[in-house]
Amino acid sequence: MSSEQITLTFPDGAKKEFPKNSTGLEVAESISKGLARNALSITLGNVIMDLDQPIDRDGKISINTWDTEDGQYTFWHSSAHLLAEAIQELYPDAKFGIGPPIENGFYYDIDFGDQSIGKDHLEKIENKMIELARNKSEFKRRVVTKEEALAHYRKIGNEYKVDLIKDLDDSVITFYEQGSFTDLCRGPHIPDTSGIKAVKLTKLAGAYWRGDVNSKQLTRIYGISFPKQKMLEEYLVQVEEAQKRDHKKLGKELGIYMMDAMVGPGLPLWLPNGTVLRRTLESFLREEQVRRGYQEVITPHIANLELYKTSGHYPYYKDSQFNPMEVDDDEYMLKPMNCPHHHRIYSNNLKSYRDLPVRLAEFGTVYRYEQSGELNGMSRVRGFTQDDAHIYCTHDQLKDEIKAVIDLTQFVFKTFGMPVDIRLSFRDDNNEKYGGDLEYWERAQQEINEVADEMNLEYKIVEGEASFYGPKIDFIIRDAIGRKWQLGTVQVDYVMPERFDLTYVGSDNEKHRPVIIHRAPFGSMERFVSILIEHFAGDFPVWLAPTQCKILSISEDYNSYAEKCADKLRDHNIRVSVDGRSEQIGAKIRDAEKSKTPYMLIVGEKEVSDESVSVRRHKKGDIGTFSFTDFLNTITEEVDQLKLPENSE
RNA sequence: GCCAGUGUAGCUCAGGGGUAGAGCAGCGGUUUUGUAAACCGCCGGUCGUCGGUUCAAAUCCGGCCACUGGCUCCA
Known about the structure:
This protein is of the alpha+beta class and about 650 residues long.
């Protein structure tokens, strides 16, 4: 009666008392039977727990169902164990590594010994998983001592788990057991396997143990699971939709770029449509930069190796650069970055503090030897163009310059309707990864942090993500279907000014070191275009579309009117083409729709007689007849204002 | 680079030991058309590449190349 009570606070703020050591399930039951039935785990404070674990303290509690991130995490974590159980049944000699839940599902790393696992095996494993799930095996939690845990895995000869246990601190080590499978695991898990109704093993990969290239490569099996078959089907449809946006597919269909084995892997060729797209993006940024006080420069594609030895890039990135070539008695290299060239331009003449900040911009093409397995369409290539710029400024100007650069970057992504998350990438304790004095680093990191706060930015700090010469501000954008991409970066650099002996004469008539800001909002034009294609699913805003308008004549009799309209549009810099083929209008419309041309103008007898055009909008259909002049005004306004398509964010 | 896959006409794909097939595209005709595919005909491939097995290889086996999904890496 007088047993101790604990107070739990629910997500809606309600507080309720429960007897100490009540379980999550009991708490859920006290709210509703339905909730108890759907509950997968609970989150107490920031710890996720099993439903049957006793709750021994006050705290914020939430009951995790499938509809919550923590619930799905629990569900997929348990699914990983189910995968392992199935594999243990089918391949008794398999040794298990780690099997965590991930953003979309789960994976398990497994040592299959000499056996190679192919796609054919996956179906067998899937079926076994479903069979085992139906056994309704409970996930049983068991606390063990470190010695017990080690003894268990030494006995069954699993060196991976032994390796893991050795690194655990001595607090609480737990095993989870379901059916015939026992696993070292922190938990939590769903009550039993019967909730897992649908399973799909999606990918097969080699994965190095603990991510170390020198360790053994295990077989990683990726999968996803759901509490209902229908959810799996919906998920597969979603995956299919995402594949329809794939820039490799659309890039080919829309004539954006091509790859050619004779040219070489990772070296994209920009086709005419892609070139229009890219040049339009470049002009957009170039004009914005001119407005913001940048000066454009052009530098060559190769340089003497000495340049990169001076910058310090050469030893750091030797393996990911094309081999140097011998020229006369010197060694030259394809340029892997633009910065050193710009530093030399800065040094071309003596700078006064009155000259600063100097902002040098270049759409600079660089070449990096990416590993063959890493190449991917346009998003990972060996030759690409950065929208690079370097800002040389005084310490006093630094914060304002960072602000201006952040402002530019935010402006750019807003133009494409892409929400941005900001990450401050700082160094960690691994001194070997970084160059320059620790003192400079700390200063730069502090300044970045101050700027972010002064601008009221929402950000998170991630240690260990800095570049070798300085901390970064990374912009992580989300595309139209919610995927995240790391794009623009802003980097503060105190190292290169030293290495290149960059100076300016201050008001005190003494020489001082400038600070450098490296920045690239798009990052790489190739990668950005690949992301844009997928973001817009190829349905570009009018200002970006390679062909903005197609004029379709009802019959050849109206071709001359079509041409006349086209000429007038061209006079206003609209990219227009005429389809005057001897085809039926339905066929012309179909072709224009398939090419994702934003505006189609249908012209026939009516339009010729009253100087009008019948306007059709891509994906929307017929939007009515307008006078030619009205249409001209509409489209030019849409281009000038860089309007986004209505269906995008 | 490593693991698992894929490679047949410009594109999408079928065929699966007895020397290739469709649709679309292209080209030539006919048609002159009102909001997502008119009709007829023609052209088009040493089946990624090199080698092996075989009387015979697009098909089976192996090396290489390219591509895809991961791992590692990413100035």
